[in-house]
């Protein structure tokens, strides 16, 4: 029969595998969330373009709101 040293079993391999799975789940979570953990984010981008021939100015505004 197999004897255990000092009355404890050797589960270091199991601990290594479980630790690796925990790290993989955390990395997967960050990849799924895009590396951002928080409520909501809002981004506003404004671009102004002037046509040299006519002198007209065009302004385009884009607003993006993300709520997970």
How is this structure best described in words?
Strand 1 (41-50) and strand 2 form a beta hairpin. This protein has one helix at residues 12-33; strands at residues 41-50, 57-66. The chain has 68 residues and is of the alpha+beta class. The two termini are 56 Å apart. It is rod-shaped and about 85 Å long. A two-stranded antiparallel sheet has the order 1-2. 32% of the residues lie in helices and 29% in strands.
Question: Helix/strand/pairing class, anyone?
Answer: alpha+beta
Q: Mind describing the biggest β-sheet?
A: 2 strands, antiparallel
* Count of DSSP-assigned helices: 1
Tell me the number of strands.
2
Question: What is Rg?
Answer: 28 Å
Averaged pLDDT: 74
Helical coverage, percent range: 25-40%
Strand order of the largest sheet: 1-2
What order do the helices and strands follow? HEE
Q: Identify the overall geometry.
A: rod-shaped
Strand content: 25-35%
* Low-confidence region ranges: none
**Spatial gap, N to C terminus:** 56 Å
């Amino acid at each position: 029969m197999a004897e255990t040293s000092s009355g404890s079993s050797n589960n270091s391999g199991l601990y290594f595998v479980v630790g690796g799975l925990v790290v993989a789940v955390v990395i997967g979570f960050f990849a799924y969330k895009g590396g951002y953990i928080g409520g909501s984010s809002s981004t506003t981008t404004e671009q102004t373009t002037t046509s040299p021939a006519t002198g007209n100015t065009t302004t385009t505004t884009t607003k993006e709101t993300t709520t997970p």
